[in-house]
Amino acid sequence: MNALLAAATEEPLIRLAGVSKSYLTHSGESIRAIESASVDCRAGEFVAIVGPSGCGKSTLLNMIAGLVGATSGLVEFAGKRVTSGGANSRQVGMVFQDAVLFPWRTVRDNVSVPLEVLGLRSPEFVSRIDMLLSLVGLSGFDSKYPNELSGGMQQRVSIARALVHDPSVLLMDEPFGALDALTREYMNLELQRIWMESQKSVLLVTHSISEAVFLADRVVVMSQRPSTIIEDILIDLPRPRTMQLMGSAKFGAYTDRVRTLFKAQGDLH
């Protein structure tokens, strides 16, 4: 799919319109975390969300998943409103910074967890485990336990687990933040490959500007709290992207643009 053309012609799979979120502290004070944020994601599109720490990036993902309700505004998935507190687990796969694997379960058994929770026991879904282990490069590791895997391999398991129930969208919350720099670069390449082969929609939260530009069709930049969307940048770079691309003038122009937005808010010094 040509994501640049799709962005101009297709209706959004996910739509957040004028979404705000407030929290109450223990003392009863209302804290406005997000203020009238609007963003969308189309089928097959890769969208990265960047912004200062504590601005509500993860909260947006949780709203889409139905884990957190918006205080005001509209959250839609495939044209249907996502209700406050209503889980959207069948249509969404989530990957977190930590792999969050069960140490007493093998790789295969960890990947199968969503199938057990959702009651998806048909041969079609069970057969997806082998396909996904191959997709993430873990064929032959199905009987290993988490403590026998590197950090990068554990995150591969979590990606396979997030895809096993065949969701429409993959939500990723700083999935490579705990990895060393070289492993993180390798996992960026692997995530691009997995996304291109699976053709899922992906929303990625990251603190890395270069990671966002490298992976995404669009980079959505959030402001300081109470946060909103200050720019939605279309990334017109060829795919598949390589590490060499990161040294190009065009790549540098995109990363500089995001940094300039951060500097304007006082988030970079």
Key phrases:
single chain, 269 residues, alpha/beta, Rossmann fold, 2 domains, 6-stranded mixed sheet, 4-stranded antiparallel sheet, 35% helix, globular, disordered N terminus
Percent helix among the residues? 25-40%
CATH topology term of the largest domain: Rossmann fold
Share of residues in strands: 15-25%
Sheet/helix structural class: alpha/beta
Q: Could you give me the name of the CATH homologous superfamily of the largest domain?
A: P-loop containing nucleotide triphosphate hydrolases
Kindly describe this structure.
- By secondary structure, this protein is an alpha/beta fold.
- It folds into 2 domains: 3-91 and 169-265, P-loop containing nucleotide triphosphate hydrolases (Rossmann fold); 105-166, no CATH class.
- It has helices at 3-9, 57-65, 107-111, 113-118, 123-126, 128-135, 151-163, 181-198, 209-215, 249-265; strands spanning 14-24, 30-41, 46-50, 72-77, 80-81, 92-95, 169-173, 201-205, 218-222, 229-234.
- Strand 1 and strand 2 (30-41) form a beta hairpin.
